[in-house]
Amino acid sequence: MIEVDNLHKSFGDTHILKGVSSSFEKGKTNLIIGQSGSGKTVFLKCLLGLFMPDEGTISYDGKIYAKLSPSEQRNLRQEMGMVFQGSALFDSMTVEGNVMFPLGMFTKQSKSEMQDRVDFVLKRVNLIDAHHKFPSEISGGMQKRVAIARAIVMNPKYLFCDEPNSGLDPKTAILIDNLIHEITQEYDITTVINTHDMNSVMEIGEKIIFLRNGLKEWEGSNKEIFKTENEAVTDFVYSSELFKKVRQMYIEERN
Amino acid sequence: MNYLSSIGSYFIMIIEVFKKPTKWSVMRTLILKEIDELVYGSMGIIIFISFFIGGVVAIQTALNITNPLIPRNLIGFATRQSVILEFAPTFTSIIMAGKVGSYITSSIGTMRVTEQIDALEIMGVNSLNYLVFPKIIAMLFYPFVIAIAMYVGIFGGWTAGVFGGFSSSADFVEGLQLDFIPFHVTYSFVKSIVFALLIATIPSFHGYYMKGGALEVGKASTTSFVWTSVVIIIVNYILTQLLLG
After folding, report:
1. What is the Cα Rg of chain A in Å?
2. Buried b (16+ CB within 10 A) or exposed e, A27-66
3. Would you call A50 and B122 a contact, using CB atoms and an 8 Å cutoff?
4. What is the pTM of this model?
5. If we measure between CA atoms, which residue out of B133, B117, B124 comes closest to residue B15?
6. B123 min Cα distance to partner chain A (Å)
7. Residue B232 phi/psi, 5° resolution?
8. Does the complex come out with an ipTM higher than 0.95?
9. For A166, which DSSP code?
10. How many CB atoms lie within 10 A of CB B147?
11. Contact: B116, A90; criterion CB under 8 Å
């Protein structure tokens, strides 16, 4: 479980996060949504330890990040997996090399043990014949799967995803969403996803946090987001005609 | 103020490079890869440039000897002195600042832009040690490149002098041996080591701390070449004053 209390972060005179508090439960897919510039990325980077908050605390299963020694912080980071928006695969390594990288860096496993683990996670993300291909030789959807495989290869406790299905076609986006959701439940991981994608919100948003101007405007589940009367949330989530109709139908069905 | 801040950040980066070392089995592979990319991969251009620079120095010296009292062995002497003292270590380093430096800046800069450096950091890897340390170690082999540049430069001078009809082989070789001071070679290698460290670290600094996208990667490569060249020239002056002055 990740708990965030009164998080503040500024860059120069610009106050990005203005006191965000929330908690992210284990085994659940937690989504952070909000308009561009609302502070989502800064919030996620604070959770990852890439930015140190100016004020407030972040605790991972009771361990407050800021109070840990540098080596404890590094150990904690090894319990985190991250799927970047652009996948961030190492260009100079093959798919297999990318997934094997954390194992080679941080474990004492033999080559065959690492190979078995890599084969297992690549199979788990439904990538069978791409072991020896380079990132530039595979599609965006496959790159995302490799990024997920690399993120879970060390059995992380915490999984963070920044816009995991941006730039993907709707079908692949749903596959990626479902894969993250399944992995979260299967391995009992605390997953936090930064997204703009309303399909993701509806499909896998077990807990949703809506950020607006650096503040938490609303939180709830994908079921509750249909019922909310919060104008800022409804304006954002139901900005397209399609989603307005979907919401209308949902409300009519309930009545 | 910006320059002072950058200089401070550069030295902080150097300290960070040596903290939390990467696992040796991984580092060994990285070092061998960088030796291949940065040192071995530069041999062709260095040999080519040194040969012709040595040749030009010999021809220029020969064409400027108009007084019949000046001995013809001056061509070999001037070629040796110019190549060993300046052309091999300094001129080659400026070329390397362009070739190797821009490669380092653009490769690290691209990793920054595509969040690969963030990925390393999140995994708990000291990205500066992982990316910059192997380059520093690889560039410690740079004096070997300079030694080859010296030999090839002098050979280029001999070829141009003898086959161009400016000097006999005996005169040229006599000039090469005339008043030879072994310390000049030591001085040249000391400079090479210092330049190697600059060529490995200044472009790494520009790549690692760059912000923006693909366009900024190009700009950072240009800026790193300019700054590496400027620092090499200033350090060359200081070392010359200290070691030969």
Report:
1. 19
2. ebbbbbbbbeebbbbbbbbbbbbebebeebebbbeeeebe
3. yes
4. 0.86
5. B133
6. 5
7. -60, -45
8. no
9. T
10. 15
11. yes
d(CA A240, CA A238): 6
Please tell me the distance from the alpha carbon of residue B55 to that of residue B29, in angstroms, as a whole number: 39
pLDDT score, position A59:
93
Query: Which chain A residues have a beta carbon less than 8 Å from that of B213?
Result: none
pLDDT digit string (tens) for B168-221?
999 999 999 999 999 999 999 999 999 999 999 999 999 999 988 889 999 999
Given this model, what pLDDT does residue A255 score?
67
CA distance B114 to chain A (A): 6
Decide if pLDDT at A89 tops 80: yes
Q: How far apart are CA A175 and CA B115, in angstroms?
A: 24
Tokens of A112: 């065959």
Which tokens in the block code for residue A27? 């085994």
Q: How many interface pairs between A and B have CB atoms less than 8 angstroms apart?
A: 47
| C-alpha to C-alpha distance for A188 and A28, rounded to whole angstroms | 8
What is the pLDDT at residue A227? 77
- What residues of chain A lie within 8 A of the CB of B119, using their CB? 82, 84, 88, 90
The whole-chain average pLDDT of chain B stands at 93
* pLDDT tens track for A234-255: 888 777 777 777 777 777 776 6
Long-range Cβ contact pairs of B226-230 (< 8 A, separation 24 or more): B227/B202, B228/B97, B228/B101, B228/B198, B228/B199, B228/B202, B228/B203, B229/B94, B229/B97, B229/B98
